[in-house]
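Ligand: zinc ion. Inputs:
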Amino acid sequence: MSKLHNYMEDMVQETYEDLLSQGQKFCGYDKCRLDVLAMVLNQLPAKYVVTQKGTVYTKLQTLNLQFKTDVLKEMVKAMRTVSKKPRH
Ligand SMILES: [Zn+2]
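Predicted complex:
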């Protein structure tokens, strides 16, 4: 069965993990992580792709490069905002 999927979600998730593994300091609470992800996703255009069960995205390498910088920029900003007002 085919499904719609917002590829931006993957990008944002991936960028979050990249940033943390590169030593970006951010509180590890799930709540804060999701706050950041939601904030970034609301700032960026959704990129819907049609996926099929088990299908690996092949055409997305270009998208990836094109959006990585934007995602990074928005994410650093969102992390700063969330760190200032953590909801816990
Ligand atoms: Zn936190």
